[in-house]
Amino acid sequence: MTGASKGIGAGIAKHLAAEGAAVVVNYSSSKEGADKVVDEITKRGGKAIAVQADVAKKKDIERLFAEAKKRSAGSTFWLTTLEFTSFLRWRTLQRNISTSIST
Asked: Distance (Å, rounded) from C-alpha 6 to C-alpha 23?
């Protein structure tokens, strides 16, 4: 889940974990925030890991998906709560995710 190291994204990640989802907390620069969310989830018996990735970079997206796949079993879904500053950044994210999902 992108944008899960703080704010609404953190709240959604915690809720999904409480419902039984294994959560990958993605962060770009807020490692401390992501680690805090993971800690809160695991203390309540949930499963979560933090993975750093800049979702505007294809290589980072590929690594994010590889880590999620390696550490999960069963169904996986993608949820983003990022605020996008431009249409170009959104298009880059779409392209990178589509490429990573199809490989």
From this structure: 14
